[in-house]
Amino acid sequence: MEITDVNQYDLRYDLDESWSPAWKPGYEQTVHEVTVFELVTDAGISGVCSTSGFAARMDYRELAELFLVGEDPRRIDRLRERLAPLNLWGPRPWHFEVALWDIVGKDAGKPVYELLGGDGDPVPAYASTGERRDAERRLAYVEDRVDEGFEAVKLRMHADDPAADLDVARRVREAFPDLTLMVDANMGWSVPLAERRQWSFREALAVARELEELGGVAWLEEPLDRHDYRGLARLRGKTDVPIAGGEFNNGLYQFREFVRQESLDVLQPDAVLATGIENATHVAGMATTHGLEFAPHTWNDGLGFAANLQVLAATPARWCEYPLEPPGWVPEARDFLLEDPIRADDGSVKPPDGPGLGVELDWELVREMDQSSGGPDDR
To answer: Is 197 a residue whose pLDDT tops 80?
Structure first.
């Protein structure tokens, strides 16, 4: 089998309702931007992957062709090494590794998780919020999620003064004493063209100590920069609240560094952003070996979510992140490019069980929305 072509589709989906991501202070999101890559083979099988957000504005097709056309997509280890220079020149190679696995799974007629030794059992999910909200609106959100069967919710904490967000967390804990809470500070990375103030070590420790008093907090996510291995280790040693991170760390060696320096309690790679599918399972093995928790990041688009669900189904992960912040960020908007959105049922998510990534793109919509010059109809 040989890759014969690479197609790129640039999509802009107008949201029915705008929303304000906590990690982009002052920004109102009205569209969901996604770039889909299609790797075409001479066997009549195509593999797909995607990137979303700011990265979806770039043209990567010719660069991907340089590394992939003429290669056997089943030689994933070789192509992962061949794609490594993309970390210097363009998109991270993990997007394309996901598409290679999609081809391999479709060729075998099995979902990727089955090829990796996993199963299709539903994974307990936590509802992952995206906005900072006042206490009354957040309490209403949590009540809706509990009614839907969720047993855990992740709150965002990104105010200039953490006291406001801590107050929301306290109110949620008082109203829902048995609910598992996760807290995400989003201090691990910066957003292009967005001004954000990062916490100092002292501020991060103060927040962690407050969360200790709150109780029932599964983890504090990204309280410091993603490369501050020593700072994270120091923070971890001074609090009982587990410290989590890794969604934008790049490659297996950075997760080895988390483990070596004892920086994190919870390793959170994203198959699309951080490791690819296979290396994500290796990170899960590191977590098991060293007594840590493994909880992949999933906040991207429907294809990225599907890729991470394949990882979740092939590892002993305890939680699936389920991004949900209505009315702006709902399954229909998040997964608009899929024929069927990925939904939670009674607080759990079942991994897609079709061949490859397990999902089908709405190709009619993708081609209708494509704004690129890299699709097959534009050549």
So the answer is: no
